[in-house]
Amino acid sequence: MPDVSITRTTTLTALTALASAAALFLSALSPASAQNVAPAAALLPAGAASAPLVPTFAPDPELLSAFGGKDGLFKLAGVLVDKMRADARIGHYFEKTKLPRLKTQLGEQLCQLLAGPCIYDGDTMKASHADLNITKADSFRLVELLQASMDELAIPFAVQNKLLARLAPMYRDIITR
Fold first, then answer.
1. DSSP states of 120-154 as a string?
2. What are phi and psi of 3, to 5 degrees?
3. Position 47 in a domain
4. What is the CATH number of the domain that holds 91?
5. 166: closest CA among 11, 8, 4, 21?
6. Which portions of the chain are predicted below pLDDT 50?
7. What are the distances in angstroms from CA 127 to CA 37, 40, 49, 130?
């Protein structure tokens, strides 16, 4: 069996994908910016088809089940948000955040990302992170905390990587500095 710590250290793709998860979490950081950003649907012309707020993938019931379904994803979101708020490096972003709302939105986003029975209706990652000055280091720290959260919930490493791969497309919208 490969050494998991070496695999994690050398898997930049996994870190990049986890950093994408940071986008969602950091999106609820600034209540002031959230008040000034219209939901993505409001930015589209009347009658235009709306783009999904979360990347869409083919349903994979086994993957959703590996996370414990909707309930497991909401539990993961709660554990992660608690870790982020308590973290010495990125916790300051969450000082004025409504943590229960962030946990709900993150749970919805993860659930929809895994083609579960949820709909994420928050802002786009780009809009919600535009004024936060998030660095690559901030995003990578969030990825580390997501991995620790998944480890705490005994989610297998291969399953973690599948989630990270689905989060990866959001990465470019999160880093603002």
1. --S--HHHHHTTS---HHHHHHHHHHHHHHHHHTT
2. -70, 115
3. no
4. 1.10.490.10
5. 21
6. 1-50
7. 7, 8, 19, 5
Q: How far apart are CA 157 and CA 122, in angstroms?
A: 28
Give the pLDDT of residue 51: 53
2 part of a folded domain: no
Helix (H, G, I), strand (E, B) or coil at 50: coil
Residue 117 maps to a domain: yes
Residue 111's domain spans which residues?
12-35+65-173
CA contacts within 13 A on the Cβ side of 87: 25
Domain-located, residue 119:
yes
Q: Are 150 and 83 in contact (CB under 8 A)?
A: no
For residues 120 and 172, the answer to whether their CB atoms sit within 8 Å is no
Residue 54: CB partners within 8 Å, gap ≥ 6? Answer: 109, 112, 113, 120
What are 86's two structure tokens? Answer: 């308590």
Number of domains in the chain: 1
